[in-house]
């Protein structure tokens, strides 16, 4: 798509499926990147990964109300559809899927999707509503687009594991791909919520990755995980975070807890607050 052509935007399932159907008739493969908008380089990296694997890419922009609790930032979550469309066109995306809430959840909508396994603990301990909302919207999006490949960022690692389980358990044929976390020059994971941070808070946020890397190295060396997690929690508070929801080291394939030390591929995951902004991140734990 040339720079002077606006990105097509569709807002109904019927229009979305008509475009995808025409691509299919032409023998083209389809990739999909789900987002909540306010796009940054991390999202565009997901589009690039989808383009490496398929001929045409659809990107959804939908701030999903069912994954926000009443006290969370649904109303203030950054929205910039026109800018998002420009960025996606430049990245090679061929279609924006931007439904309204009424299109996604019409009057009388009453279906729920519950995923066990990797959804247990971590985020669920602090946001019990979250993965129920994620599961239903992702199930709908995957069914609406019916792509060959869907690309999700590893920054939301627990979400990625939940989506993979959802697709496997419900026999959804779309291949779920995890793409490495995009970071700034200081190692901070890119996130739309980083826009909430002032310069002093941003400096604190950029310490998160380093604390996790140090803790991961300790875990990989065989140090007992309870001690590693306790020390990482203290290190984050010392670094300036206001409170810590969790720092945990789990099995990489299903997020199950270890008995005491790392004995398989692992992931260290954390959620921490700076003021009113909640940041999450994770890193692979590689044994020497």
Helix content estimate: 25-40%
Strand content: 15-25%
Largest sheet: 6 strands, parallel
Shape: globular
Distance between the termini: 46 Å
Query: Low-confidence runs (pLDDT<50, min 5 residues)?
Result: none
The Rg value, from CA coordinates, equals 19 Å
| Strand order, largest beta sheet | 1-4-3-2-5-6
Question: In total, how many beta strands?
Answer: 9
* Average pLDDT level: 96
What's the total helix number?
Answer: 10
Helix and strand element order: EHEHEHEHHHEHEHHHEEE
Secondary-structure-derived class: alpha/beta
Description of the structure:
By secondary structure, the protein is α/β, with parallel strands linked by helices. Helices cover about 40% and strands about 20% of the residues. It has helices spanning about 15-25, 40-55, 80-90, 100-105, 125, 130-145, 155-170, 200-205, 210-220, 225-240, and strands at about 10, 30-35, 55-60, 95, 150-155, 175-180, 245-250, 265-275, 275-285. The chain has a 6-stranded parallel beta sheet with strand order 1-4-3-2-5-6, with helices on both faces. A 3-stranded antiparallel beta sheet has the order 7-8-9. Helix 6 (about 130-145) packs across helix 7 (about 155-170).
Question: Layout of SSEs?
Answer:
Layout: E1 9-10, H1 13-25, E2 30-35, H2 41-53, E3 56-61, H3 81-91, E4 95-97, H4 101-104, H5 123-126, H6 130-145, E5 149-153, H7 157-169, E6 175-179, H8 199-205, H9 208-220, H10 225-239, E7 243-251, E8 266-274, E9 277-285
Parallel strand pairs: 1-4, 2-3, 2-5, 3-4, 5-6
Antiparallel strand pairs: 7-8, 8-9
Helix pairs in contact: 6-7, 9-10
């Amino acid at each position: 798509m040339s720079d002077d052509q606006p990105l097509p935007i569709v807002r109904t399932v019927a229009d979305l499926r008509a475009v995808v159907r025409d691509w299919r008739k032409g023998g083209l493969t389809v990739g999909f990147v789900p987002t909540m908008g306010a796009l940054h380089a991390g999202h565009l990296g997901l589009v690039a990964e989808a383009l490496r694997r398929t001929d045409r890419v659809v990107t959804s922009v939908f701030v999903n109300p069912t994954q926000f609790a009443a006290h969370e930032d649904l109303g203030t979550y950054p929205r910039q559809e026109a800018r998002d469309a420009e960025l996606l066109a430049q990245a090679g995306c061929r279609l924006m899927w931007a439904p309204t809430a009424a299109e996604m959840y019409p009057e009388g909508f009453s279906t729920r999707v519950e995923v066990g396994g990797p959804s247990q603990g971590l985020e669920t301990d602090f946001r019990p509503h979250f993965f129920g909302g994620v599961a239903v919207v992702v199930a709908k999006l995957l069914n609406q687009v019916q792509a060959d490949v869907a690309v999700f960022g590893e920054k939301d690692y627990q979400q990625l594991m939940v989506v993979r389980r959802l697709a496997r358990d419900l026999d959804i044929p779309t291949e779920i791909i995890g793409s490495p976390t995009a970071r700034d020059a200081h190692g901070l994971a890119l996130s739309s919520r980083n826009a909430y941070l002032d310069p002093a808070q941003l400096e604190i946020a950029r310490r998160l990755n380093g604390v996790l890397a140090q803790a991961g190295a300790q875990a990989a060396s065989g140090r007992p995980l309870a001690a590693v997690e306790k020390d990482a929690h203290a290190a984050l508070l010392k670094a300036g975070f206001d409170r810590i929801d969790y720092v945990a080291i789990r099995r990489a394939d299903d997020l199950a807890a270890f008995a005491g030390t790392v004995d398989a591929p692992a992931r260290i995951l954390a959620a921490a607050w700076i003021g009113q902004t909640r940041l999450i991140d994770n890193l692979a734990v590689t044994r020497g």
